[in-house]
């Protein structure tokens, strides 16, 4: 990690800058998927305990974001889409972000253990470690498989939510993990196709940088094919049903078609139209994940199998 660049005359930090350290957009995904994992579990949880559990999982996710921003400040200062983050912009000191991340990590894990159970708390602690150390400090700068392996960190929250309710792991929680895990590479690689120069300047070995755009397109399509069976399999478990399956089949067909369109794109045409197809597939990937987990909620309300 390089020294954090602090700009002369940078404005003083405001409360929103410390909130930004927690990566609220990413945290929203953590909150939603953790809530779904907890809500669809076959064990009733008191509403107050459920609220506290999701809150502490969210704080753990935010702590991971702060630790990520602390370590990646040198990369963020180079990449166009991250230059305005609090640390590279000089509004927050790196050691402040580290303190926020460590403090929130300890608080979130301890409080989740007290509010729910210590298995879930240990799972949260492992997730924070995986994202902050395994992904951020090791994988991200070392291998083009950074997104593939590191994607596990973002796939753990529904398992943690499930563990808060049940105290363990099941095929349902593993399949919720698998949906997010196999969704992550095509989601981020679609973004990387039209953000390649950022990763190249920052020296991040994203697949587009190390293997080129053609290989990335092949990988995107392959992962849409791998993802589909797991998301549909989830619909055949105790938390699935016809509503979820209908949504999943439609979304997977659209995602596979999108991956196919990305695969057969000529690079010159893609550059000429501003990567319009790739941007649409990236946007579709956002709807894909949200609607799958929303369908689980709707199916739960309507009654599972």
From TrEMBL:
It is a multi-pass membrane protein. It catalyses: heme b + (2E,6E)-farnesyl diphosphate + H2O = Fe(II)-heme o + diphosphate. Pathway: Porphyrin-containing compound metabolism; heme O biosynthesis; heme O from protoheme: step 1/1. It is found in: Cell membrane. InterPro entries: Protohaem_IX_farnesylTrfase, UbiA_prenyltransferase, UbiA_prenylTrfase_CS, UbiA_sf. Its main location: membrane. Its EC number is 2.5.1.141. It comes from the Bacteria. The keyword Membrane applies. It holds the Pfam family UbiA. One of its GO terms (molecular function) is protoheme IX farnesyltransferase activity. Keywords: Cell membrane, Heme biosynthesis, Membrane, Transferase, Transmembrane, Transmembrane helix. The chain crosses the membrane at residues 26-42, 48-71, 92-112, 118-139, 146-169, 175-194, 220-237, 243-263, 284-302. Carbon 2 of the heme B porphyrin ring is defined according to the Fischer nomenclature. Interacts with CtaA. Belongs to the UbiA prenyltransferase family. Protoheme IX farnesyltransferase subfamily. Converts heme B (protoheme IX) to heme O by substitution of the vinyl group on carbon 2 of heme B porphyrin ring with a hydroxyethyl farnesyl side group. This is Protoheme IX farnesyltransferase. It comes from Paracoccus onchidii. The lineage of its organism: Bacteria, Pseudomonadati, Pseudomonadota, Alphaproteobacteria, Rhodobacterales. The gene is cyoE.
């Amino acid at each position: 990690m390089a020294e954090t660049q602090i700009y002369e005359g940078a404005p003083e930090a405001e409360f929103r800058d410390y909130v930004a350290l927690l990566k609220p957009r990413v945290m929203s995904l953590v909150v939603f998927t953790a809530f779904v994992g907890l809500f669809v579990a076959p064990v009733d949880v008191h509403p107050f305990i459920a609220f506290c559990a999701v809150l502490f999982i969210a704080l753990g996710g935010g702590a991971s974001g702060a630790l990520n921003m602390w370590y990646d400040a040198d990369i963020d200062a180079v990449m166009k889409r991250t230059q305005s983050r609090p640390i590279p912009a000089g509004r927050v000191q790196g050691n402040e972000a580290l303190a926020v991340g460590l403090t929130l990590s300890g608080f979130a894990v301890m409080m989740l253990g007290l509010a729910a159970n210590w298995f879930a708390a240990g799972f949260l602690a492992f997730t924070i470690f995986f994202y902050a150390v395994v992904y951020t400090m090791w994988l991200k700068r070392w291998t083009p498989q950074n997104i593939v392996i590191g994607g596990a960190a973002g796939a753990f929250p529904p398992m943690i939510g499930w563990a808060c309710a049940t105290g363990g792991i099941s095929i349902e929680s593993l399949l919720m993990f698998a949906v997010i895990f196999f969704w992550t590479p095509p989601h981020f690689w679609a973004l990387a196709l039209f953000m390649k120069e950022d990763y190249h300047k920052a020296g991040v070995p994203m697949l587009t940088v190390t293997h080129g755009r053609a290989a990335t397109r092949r990988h995107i399509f392959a992962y849409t094919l791998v993802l589909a069976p797991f998301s549909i399999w989830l619909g055949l478990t105790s938390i699935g049903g016809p509503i979820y399956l209908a949504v999943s089949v439609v979304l997977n067909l659209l995602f596979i078609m999108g991956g196919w369109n990305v695969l057969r794109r000529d690079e010159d045409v893609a550059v000429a139209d501003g990567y319009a197809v790739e941007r649409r597939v990236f946007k579709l990937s956002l709807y894909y994940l949200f609607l799958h987990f929303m369908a689980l909620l709707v199916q739960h309300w309507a009654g599972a199998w």
